[in-house]
Amino acid sequence: MSLLRCEGLVRRPWIEGFDLELEAGTAVCLRAPSGTGKSLLLRALADLDPVDAGRLSLAGRDRKDMTAPEWRRAVRFVPQTPPRRPGTVADAVREASDLLGSPASTLSDLPLERDLAQLSGGEAQRLTLHLALTSRPEVLLLDEPTASLDDERADEVLETLSKYLASGGALIAATHDAGMAERLGGREVRLA
After folding, report:
1. DSSP-based three-state secondary structure for 99
2. In 5-49, which ranges are continuous DSSP H helix?
């Protein structure tokens, strides 16, 4: 049985009749030119934007039979550019811990007292991914997960994602990186 299933998903103006079956432990990398709806599709899959038509299910359970918070805990979206907000790294970790009901951690190279507004784009992206993984989602939806990272940090992120997949998670990543699917042992899906 597929973990995440999309049948005839429509999200206008770009997505018409998208079908996908995602098994546990697998990765799908979405490739398409900029501005053709990759991010919009991920947000629709995460139940953050409305779907115009089609059906979504998780482990055989229809999206309509789950509350929005249930779906979003299981199907976690990580944006390319995390929203900037006031507070410190410690505040973000504390908020994640409160939401999860269990302790979250931070990245070893980010001091807890560091102001979130002072994080580079890559640091903010890595912290957001780390906190999303702390919640142990069944499916990760990643928007350009390595776009703001240098090669070394990108390799670290891909290693982290490989471990997540090996533990039974599944992911869909929108990316312009032609080699990401191969490095994650996944497959590439072209949108346009």
Report:
1. helix
2. 38-45
* pTM of the predicted model as reported, rounded to 2 decimal places: 0.90
Task: Provide block-wise average pLDDT over 10 residues at a time, the chain (192 residues).
Answer: 92 89 96 88 93 94 94 92 85 82 76 90 88 90 91 92 96 92 93 74
Region of residue 60 (left: phi > 0; alpha: psi -120 to 50; beta: else): left
pLDDT of residue 185: 93
Phi, psi of 76 (to 5 degrees): -100, 125
Q: Cα dihedral sign for 92, 96, 102, 108?
A: negative
Nearest CA among 168, 165, 145 for reference residue 156: 145
CB-CB contact of 123 with 92 (8 Å) = no
What is residue 66's predicted lDDT score, i.e. its pLDDT?
96
- Which pair of tokens denotes residue 109? 């190279």
Strands (E), the chain: 4-11, 15-22, 27-31, 53-58, 61-62, 75-78, 139-143, 170-174, 187-190
